[in-house]
Amino acid sequence: MLYRSAISRQACFANRAFSAQRFASTKSLRDTLKEIIPAKQEQLKKLKAEHGDTVVGEVKVENIIGGMRGLKAMLWEASVLDPVEGIRFHGLSIPDCQKVLPAAPGGKEIIPESMLWLLLTGQVPSAEQTLALSQELAAKGALPKFVEDLVDSFPRTLHPMTQLGMGVAALNHDSAFQAAYERGMKKPEYWVHTLEDCIDLIARLPALAARIYRNVYAPGTPLAPVDGSLDLVGNYANMLGYGENHSLTEYLRLYIALHGDHEGGNASAHAAHLVGSTLADPYLSYSAALFALAGPLHGLANQEVLRWQMAMQAELGADITEEKIEAYLWKTLKSGQVVPGYGHGVLRNPDPRFIALQEFCDGKPELKASPIIQLVNQTFKVAPGVLKAHGKTKNPYPNVDATSGCVLYHYGLTEFKYYTVIFGVSRALGALTQLVWARALGLPLERPKSMSMDALSKFIADSK
Ligand SMILES: CC(C)(COP(=O)(O)OP(=O)(O)OC[C@H]1O[C@@H](n2cnc3c(N)ncnc32)[C@H](O)[C@@H]1OP(=O)(O)O)[C@@H](O)C(=O)NCCC(=O)NCCS
Description:
By secondary structure, this protein is mainly alpha-helical. The chain has a domain at about 300-410: CATH 1.10.230.10. The protein is built from 22 helices and three strands. It has a three-stranded antiparallel sheet. Bound molecules: coenzyme A (COA). Coenzyme A binds near residues 338 and 393. Coenzyme A binds next to loops.
């Protein structure tokens, strides 16, 4: 049995009563999309015509000066983030996805190909569809020679995220969307060529990301070619040099699948959406997302958590008690730093992605015994209470990054600066899905109105 059996998935599916989701068959990804896009276009047309002037919320001055936090102002199809429940992908929670989405050959965790299919179509793929997508991605996974040469020319000291963003931008040399646009394609064709670029880009990300890893951390060592018999993450792990480590490969599958999308307003997803709205091709759009991800308030948190937990470990020594952790947490807060891995812009509960990664750790004796993972668990027992007592953060609970880097570290992937690159491989699933839908729905150029402080003050005075 290559993938989880369709029967067991169907049973889970029925139990979870996801009746609105249609169970998919052997139909190709393109045919599936062709079938569902007209209904979505119709839905949008109706919304616009019948409810275009319905008020959804109000804009306060604090929204304008506060990073537009919480403003409902963009359309995003693939996922919705509930502050308490966490992320849902087309209505499916993370535990739902873990029950119904196919796993990789010989594995148990969600395979990112099945998550990509779900994000793109809103349907749970069959084992055959997942396998076909895996095979297509592997067949398209090799980098063009000029991109290899470009990446090889970067200094080792250039940050891996800068290298990733530049490599992705350079891949637009082969953009199907750009070529078709130059030929004068019609609007209904936009999504077709966007999809081709998105699939090609997702296929090539592992080879690009692994080449950067090799060049920065193990220059001169051989790099495995893309293997047509492996799935996306199987290839990625193999090219990173961890192909024999099945636990790490499974962890990467789970992490990359779960981290693939987190609504549209986060900085990386929004950057891709904004740049894509200019009809820039998916490579340019996603490179913008990667540069947003490279910021310390966004994608760097997992490396910060690891750094902080290791400093705690070094200071507290062998006999680590909850009292000592509590004192260390207060020390961190009193020195004016944030507790990394805790808090969230939207979530107000423990992040279900954190819980899923914890469960993964619980199922692996080597992770349960790992001192750094034990420290993550002990910290989880103490930190919410301390953060509540501190009284500042709106969410005293862990986010996904509270544990993600520590698992990579345990398995030997110890190069902190590289962790955001793995996040970048993952986030492509959601950001590129939305580009396809933005083109299918004919969404316009994004152009919010900005205001100066003087204009705001005048508005306030006039409205009194
Ligand atoms: C994620 C994060 C940036 C969200 O920021 P936010 O939306 O502004 O969060 P809040 O509205 O809860 O912030 C309110 C206050 O609590 C503070 N706060 C938030 N999370 C905190 C944390 N983990 N430790 C200490 N203080 C925290 C904020 O700095 C802010 O303080 P201020 O009023 O002095 O500026 C923030 O929680 C954070 O910095 N967490 C640590 C880094 C991290 O884990 N990032 C990964 C996110 S997936």
